[in-house]
Amino acid sequence: MTTKRVTVLMGGASAERDVSLRSGAAAAKALEQAGYAVTLVDVGRNPAELVRAISETQPEVVFNALHGRFGEDGCVQGVLNLLGIPYTHSGLLASAAAMDKAFARKMFESAGIPVARGRVFTRAEMTGGDPLPRPFVAKPLNEGSSFGVFIVRDGQPSPLATWPFDGDEVLVEEFIPGRELTVAVMGERALGVLEITSDHGFYDYEAKYAPGGSRHIMPAPLPPEDYAEACRLAVEAHRVLGCRGVSRADLRYDDTQAGKAPRLIVLEVNTQPGMTATSLVPDIAAHAGITFPELVRWMVENARCDA
Prior knowledge:
D-amino Acid Aminotransferase, Chain A, domain 1, Rossmann fold, four-stranded antiparallel beta sheet, alpha+beta, 307 residues, single chain, five-stranded antiparallel beta sheet, 24% strand, 3 domains
């Protein structure tokens, strides 16, 4: 029996390059432990160079460890579809839909999935003061790892006045108080709900990836019915976007209002969840009895392309 060849795509040119390099290295090590012949490709900005590098490695499957633009938004998925090479994670359409936060919101709303109140505002609309009552959250439409996300609270100057965003549009939502939850979805089932706590007060980039930046509580200490509902919402969001493989849904659990039942709000779905030493999905999978090599093996064996 020949050893299956897997090429790991990592790096890229997005703001999440460093995270992707760590994800790729960790996934490659686990893939080798699982018995695959692994080649690493550091992806740059030139798609022709990417095609050449992939063709030279002659993979039977591509493990996509890219994060952010180009690697997570459907672009690389389109290239791999044209090449006819199976790849891990979601396909072109689901990747593009999930990466566009405003579009994903509309899909969630149409399916009855609860989202935070908000909408897209243009730069020109920001001349008249705050777009929503404070506190509110402003985030780019297509970045991950909390890059460019601002929480605007009472008594603070608004960053929107100086417009620290690349594009001319920004998604503004009400701030949902309470607890930070995340759910790993593998195929058509939720692996579990994890709660994230951080001294940063916000699960930002440093909290996500710096050692000790956050604490993972697994399983999340929720009432059984709310735990089950978080799992259901994550699987439904995965389904509505058309995701496949492994995804991760981020939610808020608002249990701060006395006399009112807690509410769950879906923030977004990450189709390329991190695979670093501090990443969430491997933690959740481990609690479900799935080792990291077993997780990446499942992803490779369930890889496909849309062509």
